[in-house]
Amino acid sequence: MSDDARFMALALSLGRRGQGAVWPNPAVGCVIVQQGRIVGRGWTQPGGRPHAEPQALRQAGPAAQGATVYVTLEPCAHTGKTPPCADALVAAKPARVVIACTDSDPRVSGKGIAILRAAGIIVDVGVLEDEARADHLGFFLRVDEGRPMVTLKLASSFDGRIATASGESQWITAPPARRVVHAMRSRHDAVMVGGGTVRQDDPSLTVRDLGTTRQPTRIAVSNGLDIPLNGTLARTANDISLILCHGPKAPAELIETWESLGATLISCTPKMGQIDADDMLQQLGRHGLTRIFCEGGGGLAATLLKADLVDQLVGFTAGLALGADGLPAIAPLQLPRLAQAPRFTLTETSRIGPDLLHIWARGNTPA
């Protein structure tokens, strides 16, 4: 691995520390190197600022002059709540800036690079670009398509079931897998489930046992707003952010009740008697969300897959079989032909305790 790749890999790892905590901003990492020695490190802080570059420049101090700066996304070129990072870099006078990928935000795209080059700084773009684009996918999707990235997580038996015929589902996977799920939740802006999952499991949808105080936003999707008012979500709505996505025919008195409890209500466009997933994600994007971790159930999973809105599949497979009478992980997709099935590319597999973790990215073609 070249020095550029090694230092950019470190910048990417730093940037990931901000995932789930910086939306609607991107989770950027920055490393400053002077004569082979790291003199500054930074990543986007909770709430989206300070940005990564000022953090690293503050740590580097005068050592930033003549140094090489590695940053995972093109430095911003516009004044928002903070001055442009491109200007801060120019003032620090590094000799070279290495950028993993350009920013598609029209306020930045190409402008940050132009500011640096106009100041006589050498700029190289594209080091570990694929890795950076994967890390910033949620930010790019919100900028380019108006919606957040969706990770669909399914924990199932070997034969793809998430509960027995009687509805028993806790627990199919072992404690190590459940701990990994909490870590995944913490790296997303929000955790989403369908109304059926809320009624069946009464989940809290929080991150636990990781020593973190920040909690992701909780999202429950229910066309008729059929969410128990005596459940955990209702009891905690005023303490931990809760969004309820419902259809236009949800009872007005229920909407008022949930709002009085502290929840945010989003009325979504209907589609064939259900919530239109495209409209729902567009509205969640307008709320600033960039990364959503969907944990089912089967109906919501099928809705997102049919709408081609799943960007990453995360599967935890346990070594037990529940049979055809068990509840399937994904509701019927009604596919007449195999060629119409949504396909994904395997990117990672690992053993988590007694269970198997497999991660898939959107897009694949049969061999």
Automatic annotation (TrEMBL):
Its cofactor is Zn(2+). InterPro entries: APOBEC/CMP_deaminase_Zn-bd, CMP_dCMP_dom, Cytidine_deaminase-like, DHFR-like_dom_sf, Eubact_RibD, RibD_C, RibDG_C, Riboflavin_Biosynth_HTPR. It comes from the Bacteria. Zn(2+) binds at H51, C76, C85. Pathway: Cofactor biosynthesis; riboflavin biosynthesis; 5-amino-6-(D-ribitylamino)uracil from GTP: step 3/4; Cofactor biosynthesis; riboflavin biosynthesis; 5-amino-6-(D-ribitylamino)uracil from GTP: step 2/4. Its EC number is 3.5.4.26, 1.1.1.193. NADP(+) binds at A155, S169, W171, T197, D201. Residues 2-124 form the CMP/dCMP-type deaminase domain. GO terms for molecular function: 5-amino-6-(5-phosphoribosylamino)uracil reductase activity; diaminohydroxyphosphoribosylaminopyrimidine deaminase activity; NADP binding; zinc ion binding. The active site is at E53 (proton donor). GO terms for biological process: riboflavin biosynthetic process. Pfam families: dCMP_cyt_deam_1, RibD_C. The keyword NADP applies. Keywords: Hydrolase, Metal-binding, Multifunctional enzyme, NADP, Oxidoreductase, Riboflavin biosynthesis, Zinc. SUPFAM superfamilies: Cytidine deaminase-like, Dihydrofolate reductase-like. Substrate binds at R185, L205, R208, E295. In the C-terminal section; belongs to the HTP reductase family. This is Riboflavin biosynthesis protein RibD. It comes from Sulfitobacter pontiacus. The gene is ribD.
